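Figure S7 source data.
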Amino acid sequence: MTDATRTATLTLDGKEYSLPVLSPSVGPDVLDIRKLYGEADVFTFDPGFTSTAACESAITFIDGDKGELLHRGYPIEQLAAQSTHIELCYLLLYGELPTAAQLADFTGRVTKHTMVHEQMHNFFRGFRRDAHPMATMVGVVGAMSAFYHDSLDINDPWQREVASIRMIAKLPTIAAMAFKYSVGQPFVYPKNAFSYAGNFLNMCFAVPAEDYVVNPVLEKAMDRIMMLHADHEQNASTSTVRLAGSSGANPFACIAAGIACLWGPAHGGANQACLEMLREIGTVDRIPEYIAKAKDKNSGFRLMGFGHRVYKNFDPRATVMKESADEVLGLLGIENNPTLQVAKELERIALQDEYFVSKKLYPNVDFYSGIILDAMGFPTSMFTPIFAISRTVGWISQWKEMIAEKNQKIGRPRQLYVGSPKRDYVNIRHR
Ligand code: CMC
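Tokens for the predicted carboxymethyl coenzyme *A complex:
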């Protein structure tokens, strides 16, 4: 952020107030209204934060009109094609691409933290056997603060670092355990010889009775899914993590709050909802019926995996995800998968339809991810937990950035009160 050299003027009741204009390194200018309430005794009103920058950040940048997503300046397409999730974790956390030695050291640190405390197994067993893995994850990640007391002090940079590595390392283990528990299979311990994505696949699909061979194409596809979900600047779950963290709550509690927010169908829960919708449509001849329903405001139905608050041209993650879907289904010899056929035809029809065109509604990251995960053998209930594993590094990077800020304050929005003015209590006998 540069020092403000320009100002905007707000005129209210004949009085003028000067608002500094802040210039970001890229993107639209930002009006600084921090002193507005003190000087003019007014709040601004922006439910849904559609025009409000809630923080300063140097991690991720999105240009929604161009369909551009940059992590620390690097385009997502280049990262998805040339990097790995573990390298992207380093980039998001520390700001620069690692050298070979830095990457080896970081990978080693993450790998050595993948096991969870053995006592946590008992915690899992308290859940109903058919619990949704997201329900289990919210609980278990929150409970990490009861197990890792030596990384709870947010004022100690070393403890913040250890907590970050622990979460990046253990979230795949916890998600895989939540899955195994939900299908009644024994937990599979992490194995250091595997890659980050390969280890996760092994923990989900290996069973004691039979070895699981990690298919390198599926491993690469899983790694790419993780990269495509790694961070997305100030989305709902990240803002939740920041708000929770702003009060000084411990990092495990903050990430549990982020997972809870991610679960909603307007956010990360859309990948599960999207595949369920595609299956419900079933055949391409039923698509017009669903398009009509999505356009009918009274139906309450939306095309899941379509639309985005920021992208108004295309979601670059969806483009990579679609290529990946073709690759994975091709490898598995199921390119004629009816769900993929429905998805492609639905996309084609919607992108020509005046309603979707005029509202700038395009497929988002969740539109094709479920098709890949389904082909890999995951039940729909695991789609959002996989999003959560992937987004953990984004949440942690944003949380660390916030805690390290010099003048960090508790997040505390104001409101436009529309309730009753002050009135006197009436005794129950007189009501
Ligand atoms: N199907 C039909 N109409 C839609 C859709 C959709 N998927 N999305 C938005 N609209 C319409 C909406 O009805 C509204 O119409 P009008 O202006 O006539 O009232 C207009 O488009 C703008 O929608 P909005 O709800 O004001 O936009 P938003 O920025 O608040 O919401 C969104 C963004 C992603 C929540 C929304 O597009 C949506 O609900 N999509 C479906 C769920 C989904 O796929 N979510 C995943 C998002 S990407 C990954 C992630 O963040 O986790």
